[in-house]
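queue> pop job 88
queue> type: inverse folding (structure -> sequence)
queue> payload:
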């Protein structure tokens, strides 16, 4: 029976303590009646010296330098406030989406999308992939060890060709070691790049979530708009059918001309075409929403009508400087810049020699019965040095390429910030102007209702022709269509501002 006896079990806190622990390991053979297994003890201190050398490696790694520039966030000048300041206060981006979008049916749709949307699932899987790849890169800090064994199938021939080394004709087992000393920081920079890639992919996942919430809300508001416009189109069609019937009777009585009847029939045909168009848009929008929800095309349940949707009365945008900390696409671009910066160090370190500790240790014997006897041990250890020679120039080009990629990432980061500020300003001016537009269009609809009523009275009194009624109807229906579209645009503008500000961000 073979066992290990530890005279003292201590927590390793420094090298001296660790070496004392190593020296107290006592391997003893028990049971003289069993088959003899002589354990190699005389070289215990020899192995201890090897462990001492390995213990000093972290000191060398810490002392080593890391090639390439350290990442620093570029300085971006931002204004004290947005150009179109809606109002001061906490940004609506701090609101969770369910406090911004209060329609229960819409909330159910968004929750369904967050659970089943395929693009989001792909983004989540992508984050998991990069997390695993980061763990792989972390393993580069550790020594690489392999184990292998050999058992000749047809017996053995001869002994050792070289004393202390295994041959294919021996029984042997060995462990090999390769540990790269990260003197130039290649592994550290690789880890920095992998970590930044992971963070960028995480921000991409968050960007998809924000985009998904926005897309579902906008499609839902589009659907509510089409519902109202379809109702208006049906009312218009009924009105024109009634007008055509009246005009045909008047034509037979000689009251109107054929030209008047043709005008009414043209308006009816236009109303019929509009109904068909809106019916198509409703179904197509439901199909679009179904894809966002991760479903096959189905009918979409509605909640509150478009004109009864509740939105915050105040939509403050906050400070421009906060945008750099909220928008996931900005943070993603920044992490991409950090990764590109770290890869400059990887490319630069690749131009220097690699220093590694290599070795192997094992036992070998021409006979299986002698495999663990004294004298069967073999091992070699030392330092390995590998450096570029003929490919040194190509590695220089690799560094130049990495530097160019970093400049590209910087330009992309700056461009992303510019686009972000533009989108915020666009949403702010849209919200500011749409309120005035809504007030004006409501007054227009009220005035056209009154005009239609007066036109009907004048026609019934024989003062004017039915053409005046036709024009009043046409103007009213068109104004109602436009008012509905503006209602939708108002809601969408608030959603777009929420998205542009990086909505859902919690300070």
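queue> result:
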């Amino acid at each position: 029976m073979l066992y290990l006896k530890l005279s003292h079990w201590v927590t390793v806190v420094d090298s001296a303590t660790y070496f004392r622990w190593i020296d107290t390991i006592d391997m003893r053979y028990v049971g003289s009646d069993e088959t003899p297994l002589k354990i190699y003890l005389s070289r215990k201190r020899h192995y201890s010296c090897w462990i001492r050398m390995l213990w000093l490696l972290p000191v060398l790694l810490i002392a080593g330098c890391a090639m390439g520039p350290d990442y620093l966030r570029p300085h971006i000048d931002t204004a004290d406030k947005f150009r179109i300041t809606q109002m001061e206060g906490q940004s609506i981006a701090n609101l969770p989406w369910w406090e911004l979008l209060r329609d229960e049916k819409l909330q159910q749709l968004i929750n369904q999308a967050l659970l089943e949307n395929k693009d989001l699932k792909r983004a989540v899987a992508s984050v998991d992939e990069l997390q695993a790849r980061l763990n792989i890169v972390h393993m580069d800090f550790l020594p690489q060890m392999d184990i292998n064994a050999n058992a000749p199938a047809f017996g053995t021939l001869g002994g050792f060709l070289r004393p202390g080394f295994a041959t294919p004709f021996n029984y042997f087992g060995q462990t090999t070691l390769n540990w790269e000393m990260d003197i130039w920081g290649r592994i550290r920079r690789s880890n920095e790049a992998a970590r930044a890639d992971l963070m960028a992919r995480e921000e991409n996942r968050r960007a998809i979530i924000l985009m998904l919430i926005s897309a579902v809300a906008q499609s839902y508001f589009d659907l509510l708009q089409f519902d109202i416009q379809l109702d208006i189109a049906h009312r218009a069609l009924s009105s024109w059918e009634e007008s055509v019937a009246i005009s045909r009777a008047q034509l037979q009585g000689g009251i109107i001309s054929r030209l008047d009847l043709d005008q009414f029939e043209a308006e009816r045909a236009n109303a019929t075409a509009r109904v068909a168009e809106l019916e198509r848009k409703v179904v197509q929008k439901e199909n679009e929403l179904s894809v966002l929800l991760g479903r096959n095309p189905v009918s979409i349940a509605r909640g509150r009508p478009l004109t009864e949707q509740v939105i915050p009365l105040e939509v403050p945008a906050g400070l421009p400087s906060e945008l750099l900390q909220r928008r996931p696409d900005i943070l993603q671009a920044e992490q991409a810049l950090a990764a590109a910066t770290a890869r400059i160090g990887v490319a630069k370190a690749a131009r220097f020699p690699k220093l590694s500790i290599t070795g192997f240790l094992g036992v070998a014997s021409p006979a299986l019965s002698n495999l663990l006897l004294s004298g069967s041990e073999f091992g070699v250890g030392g330092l390995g040095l590998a450096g570029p020679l003929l490919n040194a120039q190509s590695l220089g080009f690799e560094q130049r390429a990495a530097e160019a990629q970093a400049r590209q990432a910087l330009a992309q980061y700056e461009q992303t910030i510019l686009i972000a500020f533009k989108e915020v300003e666009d949403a702010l001016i849209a919200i500011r102007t749409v309120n005035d537009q809504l007030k004006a269009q409501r007054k227009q609809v009220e005035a056209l209702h009154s005009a239609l009523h007066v036109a009907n009275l004048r026609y019934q009194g024989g003062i004017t022709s039915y053409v005046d009624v036709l024009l009043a109807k046409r103007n009213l229906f068109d104004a109602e269509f436009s008012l509905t579209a503006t209602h939708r645009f108002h809601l969408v503008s608030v959603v777009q501002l929420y998205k542009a500000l990086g909505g859902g961000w919690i300070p």
